Amino acid sequence: MKAAVCYEFNKPLVIEELDIEKPHKGEVRVRMAATAVCHSDIHFINGDMGAPPPFVPGHESAGYIEEVGEGVTSVKKGDPVVLSLLRSCGQCIFCRTGRPTCVMPNGAGYGKPPSE
Predict the structure, then answer these.
(1) Of 50, 71, 74, 94, which is the most buried if we count CB atoms within 10 A?
(2) What are phi and psi of 43, to 5 degrees?
(3) Is pLDDT of 92 > 70?
């Protein structure tokens, strides 16, 4: 896959071809259709978020499931997906109904459910 890679903070990204591993247990591989670099990515590129290089920014993306790893049952090859920086459990009522705040311990917004 062709990607823009951050090798050093506050330096230009390097466009290059990368080899992607097959998905491991619980992972999927997505064929990207579109991606964007947002303000959160800029914070990563500037070194403000604590993630060490190298990394590929562009977490606001959309594409299609290309391959699923062992144990993945919630999606299948060909399913359209949207990627996000925020995690969700996919199980709680908030995740299942498309609300922005997950309330489960493994989700991004764990805590008291927002009042309706």
Answers:
(1) 94
(2) -65, -40
(3) yes
